[in-house]
UniProtKB/TrEMBL annotation:
The keyword Repeat applies. SUPFAM superfamilies: Ankyrin repeat. Gene3D superfamilies: Ankyrin repeat-containing domain. The lineage of its organism: Eukaryota, Fungi, Dikarya, Ascomycota, Pezizomycotina. The keyword Cell inner membrane does not apply. It holds the Pfam family Ank_2. Keywords: ANK repeat, Repeat. This is Ankyrin repeat-containing domain protein. PROSITE patterns: ANK_REP_REGION, ANK_REPEAT. It comes from Cordyceps fumosorosea (strain ARSEF 2679). ANK repeats lie at residues 26-58, 60-92, 93-125, 126-158, 159-191, 256-291, 292-325.
Amino acid sequence: MESADESASPHQNMAHENYRAMESQLVNAPLHQAALHGSAQRLHELIDDGADINARVSARELTALHIAVQWDDEETAKLLVEAGANVSAPTFDGVTPLHNAAAAGSVSLATLLLEAGANPNARNIDHETPLHVVALFGNDRLAELLVEAGADVTAGDCYGNTPLHIAAAHEFLDMARLFLEGGADVNARNNNGDPVLHHAMADRPASVTLLLDNGADPLATGEGGGTALHRAVQSCPAIVPRLLDAGADIRSTSTDGATPLHVAAAWGRTGGKQQVERLVAAGADIHALDNSGATPLHYAAAAWGSSERLRALLEAGANVSATTNDGESALYCTLGHPSTAFQCHDKDLEEKITVLIDAGADVNTRTTYGQTLLGRAQEMDNRIVMQALDGRGAIQ
């Protein structure tokens, strides 16, 4: 016969384990035990006997109200609030009961706490307000309640992320609209310098559209000096046309001098060929050089699974003989950049070499330090490259 734990769902077992873990921390805290068990009679007895209603226990310094709210026990929480519990008491890491209500997604508990005077802008150790917590979980009604209570929609957490950064990153569109209507800065930057728009580039096209429609700057740069277009070609290709329509600069460069086409050449694994073709058609410079003198063709050559992107660049007129500041040709870069330990042993490697040689690449071009592709391949013991060069007149 199955035990209760064996027949329960994983979520039920986890909740049960958390409950037991909490119980073990409250052995010598009868008020907190009563709150955990939801025992109204026992709570009344303890309070009448003079128990400190705001006493803190465990390493986290929890009050009884924290426990009641954490376990979504509205009746017990109401009893404690009416008995004078501090509704804004922080734990050792700054978590208030309102933070707990936000994490639980409880509108009724949040209402109870706010009506009792809870601070809607209290910050935990990570500088998160309850609104940051709500933005992470996506409860629109709770977000609305907090904003109505005076929650600061522009507050930044320890990373500088505002609630709008978080809501946009999770594509909680109604919540993002609420924040924008409440005065959130659509171009707010976090501590890395990333504006909200960049946070929506993890395949969140609807968020990007909403932000652009509300004045997000498509030319704003973020960490690494890249624009939203640099981010989009890597992780949100569907939004590229919208960014271009909004005025994104297709020839903008990041701190290392890379254009969006460089990034697409290196990272466009899904629909990469079409991405390259789209950018070229929109005016991207196929001959653009980054700070190391590398063109998009060099980036594609060094990337995994990129033979189709190589073909697209070559068909657009990329110079197969162009070399970097170190004299590296695109063909040489099929082994990966020599300044790293990275070796491009992908299944597409031989195909890339064939594509470049068929396009006229010189197999014996030497770098500024005198090395040929064959010499480098032998040094790295890359048999795929050595086999691909066999019979093509390659020398060390």
